[in-house]
Amino acid sequence: MNLARTLGISLEVLLGHRLRTALSSIGIAIGVAAVVLMVGAGQAAEQDVVGKVKSMGTNLIVVQAGRFRAEGGRQRQVATFTTLTLRDRDMLVRQLPDIARASAFVQGGVIARYKGTRTQTTLAGAEPSIFDIRGITATSGRLFSDMDQRSIQRVAVVGPTVVTNIFGGADPVGQTLQINKVLFRVIGVASPRGQDLSGNDQDDIIYIPVTTATTSVFHMNYIQNIMIQAVSPEAMKALPDEITPILRRSHRLKPAQDNDFSFQDQSQLLQSQTDTTQAFTLLTGSVAAVSLFTGGVGIFAVMLISIRERTREIGLRRALGGRRRDIRTQFILEAGALAAMGGLMGVVVGLGGTLLTCHLMKWPEVWPWSATLFATGLSVAMGMAFGLYPAMKAARLEPATALHAAG
Amino acid sequence: MIELQGLEKTYHTGGVDTPVLHDINVSIEEGEFVALMGPSGTGKSTLMNILGLLDRPTGGKYTLGGVDLTALDDNQLSTIRNRRLGFVFQLFHLLPRVSVLQNVLLPFLYTEPYPADAKERATQILQSVGLGDRMNFKPNTLSGGQQQRVAIARALINEPAFILADEPTGNLDSVASGEILDIFDSIHRKGRTIIMVTHEPDVAARAERVITLKDGRVASDERRR
């Protein structure tokens, strides 16, 4: 039997029954659309996370003072140590060629005042290299320099949100800002960075030299973090093992003592975040796949009705020389074709929905091709599987009986 | 060409045996136009189904061109139906949503290899039954007589050894019936073997031989000319 010709005639029959064909395919269409949309939205969300992590700086690894433990996918500090210093930072940069640049870092909540406006914000004490690491430029004025850092200048670079909240949107360069009772001169405005993974505003921040932060604002003789940018992804993976002995020696740790510092790198952060979104995608995708199954049941029902209605056609085909297996093949093909039509509708709706979702959520645009292929393939397979029993029933009909059936 | 020897058919339903055909002995030569008559319930349809290889006898022998068909399996019987038999039914049995041309080509769906000149043959046959201008029409836009002509064209497409026509005019008015019978006449004149079931004497009168069944037996077998 010629499969292409059989399918051709089946398609003419199916297209002749427009309404019924549409109704039986719609279950599959919804299922496929759901799978494509869920997976598409999941992938877009994941890419969004990846983008945000990358915005923290590429090949970034953070040395944190104290010990941290992963809890529920997030790092939680379990002990604070005061042993990490600027001297450590200098030593690491000097000894390790894998480090492209590094910045000591301290951060804390502060009260900022300007002409009667009083706002709570985040103060970051860092070195000028932080701007390179985070890809920050000055949209007005300038960033602080090594000179400012060495001479412990009270200069501040403010984030765009601070400009809005404290200065009412006016250019703050040259103005005097009071931070926790210490006066600072605003020398520049940082370029915007948007929200971080937790949805926190990364622009509600004031950058000052780390030396000024430790001595004048936070009054501490240690630093919290060293932000390190490695020369390559491989270097980033190698760095913890290179840094550990240097810091242990510097902190005079005995072999039995645990590290009083820990590492956090982007790949870990990325991993924990993408694990979450991927698990979510898998879950929603699976639920959607179940609706494909429901669509298959719809095809099953329609095929059974169709075979009852077309008993005489089956008898005719047998009389004209169709073997049992030809009849079986024909109806399996028809079920597959019904599912494929539904699948096609679903793909169009699903991809459209994905693009719309990406647009509305301001996520990067994705085309979930593998999910599309998977869902369409699965729906056709499902259609054929659900068409199998009706097709076998059709093939079992006795030709003489089928030919003279009523209707 | 067709030999029925001691043909028997008994239906077994629910443990009850219902004999329908008893000891049928008929021989039909190539080129004959045979009418099969008899009141309803005499086994006409059953004999028709057996002749058409749509049903099997429970006893006796059916040979076509010297080949014993009672020994063949379902697939082999399907192939013989496809290659050597042509069917015309009372209710036309056309696929309503498929073009006239595709309906005529339907038997070739099951023919391997697909004849290269299939479309030319179908066109030619449709022209010969006066439907050359209706090839791309859907059957449900045609009159009953035209639909039956499509069915005749479909029965002729594989150049069958014989045509089985089951009450071919049973659903037609007298004008259309006359046209259809004229077509059968002309097919017959070209040498095609035709076996036609009918219960109308004036239809049977067109045949050159009339076999009458009664109570599952051949009651009479007359050659008219």
Strand-helix topology:
The complex is a heterodimer of chains A (about 400) and B (about 220).
Chain A: H1 3-16, H2 18-55, E1 60-65, E2 67-71, E3 74-79, H3 86-95, E4 99-114, E5 117-126, H4 129-134, E6 138-141, H5 146-150, E7 155-158, H6 160-167, E8 176-179, E9 182-190, E10 205-209, H7 210-217, E11 225-230, H8 233-250, E12 261-265, H9 266-309, H10 311-319, H11 324-361, H12 369-396, H13 399-403
Parallel strand pairs in A: 5-10, 7-9
Antiparallel strand pairs in A: 1-11, 1-12, 2-3, 4-5, 4-8, 4-11, 6-9, 7-10, 8-9
Chain B: E1 2-13, E2 16-28, E3 33-37, H1 44-51, E4 59-64, E5 67-68, H2 74-84, E6 85-88, H3 100-105, H4 118-128, H5 144-156, E7 162-166, H6 174-189, E8 193-197, H7 201-204, E9 209-214, E10 217-223
Parallel strand pairs in B: 3-8, 3-9, 6-7, 7-8
Antiparallel strand pairs in B: 1-2, 1-4, 4-5, 9-10
Written description of the protein model:
- The complex is a heterodimer of chains A (407) and B (225).
- Chain A has 2 domains: 3-52 and 271-406, no CATH class; 82-260, no CATH class.
- Helix content of chain A is 57%, strand content 20%.
- Chain A contains 13 helices and 12 strands.
- With 225 residues, chain B is α/β, with parallel strands linked by helices.
- In chain B, helix 5 runs parallel beside helix 6 (174-189).
- The interface between A and B is medium-sized, with 29 and 30 residues.
Give structural attributes.
heterodimer; A: 407 residues; alpha+beta; 2 domains; two-stranded antiparallel ribbon; 20% strand; elongated; B: alpha/beta; six-stranded mixed sheet; 7 helices; 10 strands; globular
